[in-house]
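Quick one before lunch.
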Amino acid sequence: MSGTRVFGEPIARREDPRLLSGHGRYVDDIGQGALEVAFVRSPHAHARIAGIDVTDALDVEGLAAIYTHEDLTGRMAEPLPLLIPHAALTHGRTQFALAKDEVNHVGEPIVMVVARDRYVAEDACDRIRVEYEFLPPVVGIEAARAAEHLVHDDVPGNVAAHMVQEVGDAPAAIAAAPNVVTLELEIERSASMPLEGKGVHARWDADDRSLRVYTSTQASTSVRAAIAAKLELAVDRVDVVAPDVGGGFGVKIVHPWPEELLIPWTAIRLGHEVKWTEDRREHFVSSAHERGQVQRIRAGFDDDGRLLGFEIVLWHDNGAYTPYGIIVPIVTTTQLLGPYKPGAYRAEFYSLYTNTLIVTPYRGAGRPQGCFAMERTMDAIAERLGLDRTVVRERNFIQPDEMPYDHGLIFQDGRPLIYDSGDYPAALEKLKKLVGWDEFEEYRAAARAEGRRVGIGMACYVEGTGVGPYEGGFVRVEPDGTVVVATGLTTQGQGHQTVFAQVVAEELGVPIDRVVVTTGDTRRFKYAVGTFASRAAVMSGNAVALAARKVREKALRVAGEALEADPRDLEIVDGMVQVKGTPGADIPLSTVAVLSNPLRYAFDEEAKRATQFSAPADPDKPPVADDDEPGLEGTDYYSPPRSTFANGMHAAIVETDPETAEITILRYCVVHDCGTLINPRIVEGQIHGGVAQGVGGALYERMVYDEAGQLQNASFMDFLMPYATEVPVIETDHLETPSPLNPLGLKGAGEAGVIPGSAVLASAIEDAEGFRISRMPISPSELHHLRESQPPP
Ligand code: MCN
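Model of the pterin cytosine dinucleotide complex:
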């Protein structure tokens, strides 16, 4: 597409032809001559390592090296860093890159084998004997709470963190309320399944003493900092590149993974390229999970359904270690408030160790659990008072004229929890219209007459997006007219090559097909935070816009000198800098780039001809000020005052089979507000992907551990994900309330679709069945058992 009006247009993703035709370049496509790594990982959930015997593996042909914890030196021998410390995390624990004395979950790496290829490495792994002394495993929240056994000897009660946040006196408000509901809820442990697992490739240049690492990550700059620190190298000597990344969904945030340190460490040691590619079973047992939470809620409300006090205690399963701190339960307890005023509020959580895989934020990151808590409560209040579920919600909404709305709590980023903007009543109206809420009873009656069981449900959410501290953007106009854009955060399928090009094309007034975007490459942009928490649009979107504005300003100044015009009289249209209202008085932006580069000008006859009319004194010297910095380029950073809060509402109509209890989604409607839209098509794609994961989390996906801590469904044969056939057609409507916090008015969109999945489907199934749904996911057989356990009417 050409033309310069591209911001806000639903243009197709520019990266797709390349990716969809198999021309993506992933870590495993890099370094075909590299040595390859396989790991001996713990087959036990909890054990002491009594000995490791590698003798039988040593004569495997093609073996390059075998390493255990004893071989690790310097800071590599220390535990991995704890990324987000928090005062409430009194007992944070991280693992060693290779287990030292003890293993705490199935899949924990113990021995690293490097060989000619992966086959040889795996064969050698098979010959290594690890002697274990078994310890009792702690599996699941109940066992962790009972604390009959401990995951870490020095962590009493298995409690990594205990935290309370409150505003007002919720217990007193609830005690005084005329109506109270209590709920016991559970969301099971699950995980994201990116098409591409993790992968790392490292090359050490001994002459240059520099390291180049390719890794499938969401945060290449963090990986770079971690490698430099752990391997005791100057940051300047390390480059980390995230090439094409086949999905991340949060699981690739943790930096560094053991493998992200071990592969570069080995490459330096062996003086050879080394790589490792995670296989699917490794992804199941040694990447990261999330979701698992048990919640107890009490809510007090008046006779109109308005909340007077809300109290939640939750137990969060954080797995064996806490590399990512307690971010997930903090997100749950600060974002479950949704679009509502809760009255007095008290949230308390326990983050518990179990002998299962670690937890890192998975798309939604604690919000699906929070949304489930609040939205189940809203439905329970409606049921208790015999009110329509939309009416109860509406009565509790924060109103548009109450924005900005300060909850009096501290958000996950340590700043006050203040909603910046949103119009929840308008969104609800749109949703009711879209799904036909008011006509549903008619539809239900007709369905009932045919012996069908149908239900409608809804759920709302508010999502803090665009967390800081900063993100940067670089923009340069090349002498051939190409506009090079770089930002340091990474891309895993969000369409950043398209949206950042849209932003810059719009700001600079150039055709979008002249704009080329690079992300996630520390060679191109050094300082960045990463792609998570739906922050790229807000952070890098605004950063590249600010950088482009700098470039535009300079372009107008330089062109003004060349055209002998006041920059204020100039505009850039379709790549031409022109004097407003004076046809013919123009100069291509590419020529302005040449003028900004005196050396290049000296060799550019065309540029000289183009600027002849300004009669330069020296024909080899561009007609621009001597003291201007060379180059038509600019760098800028965007740092938000605080997070911006996107919001949305989903409604679903389901049918449950009266005999088989099969659950079918008949309709799925979304109203979403992420402020100004850069690209509505991409946002809808993001919502669709999120809804698919929300449907998965509500009806299919869970991690099934047995009592010994063995993951029973660690393959795609047993871990059920929705196919396209199970994902409903998603009907979407947008509302755009721009954020007042950033120049482009953006809020994030990347996680929205997944957040209300369990809440909305529980609401709809409950409506179809007439009894409370308290635990998700729910399968047909579980629904059947629930039916059987209901008291007779
Ligand atoms: N966008 C827009 N207008 C807005 C807001 C967003 O056009 N007002 C566009 C953005 O420019 C971007 C996309 O929508 O192209 C998502 O934007 P944003 O909300 O900023 O989210 P991020 O780009 O930071 O992506 C992170 C987010 C998260 S946290 C997870 S998890 C997730 C997700 O994105 N993982 C994904 N979407 C994913 N999509 C794919 N294909 N793969 C993943 O791993």
